[in-house]
């Protein structure tokens, strides 16, 4: 019995452990940049949902506002004698039933539907723009957090090397071949690196907070992948420039211009006469019933000035919307030129640092170590050479991340 009971208990324990700690194990899985983008898009951002609800509301409004107004049904007792209150005494006494149907002026209904449809289209482009902004924010937030984590690693490695130099300085000082100044210099640089680590941790905490706001506490707390991130290749500057007109922000503004154009058309339709049809049926007791039908036409005579100014206002609003679209086009162009310049120049600096600057700094550090061992250089020069390597490594890491962030901005402009 015990042989069967013990394996069952063990299996139950394993199942409970998986249920309790499975989430924690998943939280420790390194988070890659593509996965971050997918999680950010699937995080159910309220702003994205709000755009969808607005678009559906305008689509519903397009159908509702394009329908004919409800007919008006009327009923009355006409020509009723008040002296005798006798319904059959006077031949003109009758029960009248009427039906009235108004028709909007010109093509107002169809134009109103087109206006609401254009607004719905613009809202959907704004939704697409928000999704592109989420992708950009996810990429740049991940890259920023990656940099500060990498900066901490490089600083800790440099601090370890300085500590090793401190051991050398203490050994040399114990043998009487150097002064106490070398030992104190190591302590000073160690404390300085501690202060740098505190500042790095502060920036990393800020980047982590932004990361958690984007992904949530659970996924935002996961560690990042150690592999250096790779983004999709950017197209040429001219190709991106040609695609700016298709950017979601531009398409949303195009839809707004279309909306204002329909408002201009609706205002112009108000100069046309409005029609309404009337039909009435008069019911009398013992006499012939009456029937009548008529058409009413509204004449835009005394309200002409109001309609003129309404049309002028609609045209001015359309012109304003076109100017706003032109302003956005200029802003996208400036953003393209700025990010392209940063992307290309940072690439040149990275090539220079990787091919020349970093190698020379490491050679200088090794030469200083050799010279110090041969009593040809002082200890402070050795420490300065090591710290110079750290500064160059941090600069190179920052340049790489800045270039990737500029690349992410270019991908945003090209709609990728």
UniProtKB/TrEMBL annotation:
Pfam families: OEP (PF02321). It is found in: Cell outer membrane. One of its GO terms (molecular function) is efflux transmembrane transporter activity. Transmembrane segments: none annotated. The keyword Signal applies. Keywords: Cell outer membrane, Membrane, Signal, Transmembrane, Transmembrane beta strand, Transport. It comes from the Bacteria. Belongs to the outer membrane factor (OMF) (TC 1.B.17) family. This is Outer membrane protein. It comes from Hyphomonas oceanitis SCH89.
